[in-house]
Amino acid sequence: MNRKYKIILSGGGTGGHIYPAIAIANELKSRFPGAEFLFVGAKDRMEMEKVPQAGYDIEGLWISGIQRKLSLKNLAFPLKLISSIWSARSIIKSFKPDVAIGTGGFASGPLLYVAASSNIPSLIQEQNSYPGITNKLLSKKTQKICVAYDGLERFFPREKIIKTGNPVRQDLLDVDSKIVEAKEFFNLKHGKYTLLVLGGSLGARRVNELIENKLDFLDAQNIQIIWQCGKLYYQQYKIYNNTNNVQVYEFLNNMDFAYAAADVVISRAGASSVSELCIVGKPVIFIPSPNVAEDHQTKNAMAIVNNDAAMLIKEADLDVDFENKFSQLIASPEKQKKLGSNIKKMALVHATTQIADEVEKLLNK
Which residue range forms the structural domain that includes residue 247? Predict the structure, then answer.
């Protein structure tokens, strides 16, 4: 029987929280075509644009994170939190969900807190190897916690943990079959080495500075570049578009083609990026952001590096190490093949379906 379930999801702030939520919703929608879905996000954040583009309704809360450095913005946080909890109560009372799913981000805290407190079956999905404070607090109230890394019983009740991996776009599962089509799509030269640079949906200042400073070096290595510089930096770096075999993008909507076209990838180490890179199986140089809670990007990257499946250069070491490490990688097809093969072995390709299985169990209860 296909009951008309009502499913509420919250995750946002960055693509790393939004896309997993959308992937889970798409899987559940394919299982329950009659289900009704509602997303809850933070007002003025990118989920308010990306979720409707994916075909789902979304409500916005007046919420933001706590700044880790002293900031006047923190004075408004208690007010925003109270306001968001009231709004979340109103949304849940009106929508009457059968299940609540949180994938992280500012808005998921108030929504999942209210849902779990209202005895609505709830599941959170923790993408990182080191969880944020929101999910640590929510773990006491939710029924299930889907994780992507081992060792999270240090932070969460062991009996609630299910290791599933992170949801990723299904079009990434077979990028090797799209290489020729992808090179045509980006107007790349066949037979010429392609570097893909990813700094996250908003962009990464230090990664962008590195690429700008190394354009002559990369050109001398006969490399063509697909450079996703991010929303915050596009106006600054678009001047390099179509110079020295460089293509600059604010955002890449065809990630399957971007990965397919790449011979090597330079990337931040956000959880979703790491999961995607495991699935596509390309040699990667991680440059983790040092500006995130508990330095979790370095921890994410080290989980891969420790398996001889990627390289890592800390931001502080870029000026000294980048040219040497990059040259070594480019010069060694054997090393590229080994890194690509090893990272692919770490992929958890069925994450989305496994998380949907756990949601279905909650619905059946």
Answer: 171-345
